[in-house]
Design a protein that fits this description.
Mean pLDDT: 85
Helix content: under 10%
Strand content: 25-35%
Order of helices and strands: HEEEEEEH
Number of strands: 6
Strand order of the largest sheet: 1-5-4
Radius of gyration: 15 Å
Low-confidence stretches: none
Distance between the termini: 16 Å
Largest sheet: 3 strands, antiparallel
Shape: globular
Length: 129
């Protein structure tokens, strides 16, 4: 089952698919010539939030510099710095059966690495999904 979301869209996966145990979040984009000679480096991240709506520690943020949650429930499969390859350029895998009881929700984000410094923005990203 594939679900495509648009910017800001929310979905309760367990309500949508009650027997769901594993989730794969894929991110892809085309290489974009920024005019400044640098590729666009998009990064997928996952925030594991408690009932307060906040992470309880740095370990609750999974991204290119922290590839996995200590529980083994959320894992980043690495950082692609250029995009444009076949299939997903970055992936985050979630094992819902391993998510700790104190985690109320998992929020996924996409950012551009050093966007301000490189003068890059999402308006110039091609074919992102």
């Amino acid at each position: 089952m594939a679900i495509n979301l648009i910017k800001g869209q929310k979905i309760d996966l367990l309500k949508h698919e009650p027997g769901l145990t594993n989730v794969l979040v894929g991110l892809g984009w085309s290489i974009n010539d920024s005019g400044h000679g640098e590729d666009y480096d998009l990064d997928a991240s996952a925030f594991l939030l408690g009932n307060s709506g906040r992470v309880s520690s740095d370990y609750d943020l999974v991204f290119f510099n922290n590839l996995g949650h200590p529980s083994g429930s959320v894992r980043s499969m690495g950082d692609n710095r250029t995009g444009g390859s076949e299939g997903d350029d970055e992936q985050i895998k979630v094992d819902l059966l391993k998510v700790p009881a104190n985690i109320a929700k998992i929020v996924f984000t996409v950012t551009i690495y050093e966007a301000r410094k490189r003068r890059q923005n999402f308006g110039k990203v091609s074919n992102a999904y």
